[in-house]
Write a structure and sequence with these properties.
Blueprint (H helix, E strand, L loop, with lengths): L1 H24 L10 E4 L5 E4 L9 E5 L2 E2 L5 E4 L7 E10 L5 E11 L6 E9 L2 E14 L2 E4 L6 H6 L13 E6 L2 E7 L14 E5 L4 E6 L2 E7 L2
Parallel strand pairs: 2-7
Antiparallel strand pairs: 1-3, 3-4, 5-6, 6-7, 8-9, 8-15, 9-10, 10-11, 11-12, 13-14, 14-15
Length: about 220
């Protein structure tokens, strides 16, 4: 009788163990593959003001198969205004998982003040180079620079902190002869930490280069070519 009870108990235990294994492995064998996107051509892509943006190309694969035809493209490129724009390429698999890549598009205005520039900025022992800065027309004879600090904070010291913090020191200026003069400046994180009255700047119409400083921050803007 004891042996019978023992075998019954063992059988029940084995059945219970088998049931648990089935439950824990159920649905865990499915594999999902993410789309893989690759860009062709230049990134960043450079185009002059007024020219057409021609898509350089892209490819997308899913588990080794070409799914480029299913890629969705979103873009804010406006070649009628100098600036830095973005083209985003996205693809979604059958399980709803997506992947995306982006291409920067620089719209340049050769010879114009409103243009895309590369900044060199320095304060004390800290310096940063080749930071992209955009200047746009603000009105008659005035221009708006997206960051008067030349990217020192937004691209240099604290990249990735926005939009929690605003490190772009927007400002409006005019060019009188070879002098760069501030007209107004916006609200940004360190706005009250700077004295804008001691701003001095020059503009070289031959090279298109700006050189200016305020409160020991030195900035040089060179037009992107």
């Amino acid at each position: 009788m004891k042996k019978s009870l023992y075998f019954i108990a063992c059988a029940a235990a084995l059945l219970a163990l088998g049931s648990c294994q089935e439950l824990t492995t159920e649905g865990l064998t499915r594999t999902t593959y993410y789309p893989v996107l690759s860009l062709e051509g230049d990134n960043p892509y450079v185009v002059n003001l007024g020219q057409s943006y021609t898509e350089p190309g892209y490819t997308a694969t899913l588990n080794g198969e070409d799914v480029s035809s299913s890629v969705t493209i979103s873009s804010n490129v406006d070649t009628s205004a100098p600036g830095i724009y973005s083209v985003v390429y996205s693809a979604v698999n059958e399980d709803g998982f997506s992947a995306s890549v982006s291409r920067d598009v620089y719209v340049l205005n050769p010879g114009g003040i409103d243009n895309v520039y590369l900044s060199t900025c320095k304060m004390g022992s800290r310096s940063y180079r080749n930071l992209p800065i955009v200047i746009k027309k603000a009105g008659s004879g005035t221009y708006e620079i997206e960051d008067l600090c030349g990217g020192f904070y937004c691209y240099g010291r604290y990249p990735g902190y926005e939009p929690t913090y605003d490190f772009h020191a927007e400002a409006v200026f005019s060019v009188d002869g070879g002098a760069m003069k501030l007209v107004s400046w916006g609200d940004w994180y360190f706005r009250t930490s700077f004295n804008y009255d001691n701003f001095t700047g020059t503009y070289d119409s031959t090279t298109g280069q700006f050189d200016y400083d305020f409160d020991d921050l030195l900035v040089t803007l060179t037009p992107l070519e």
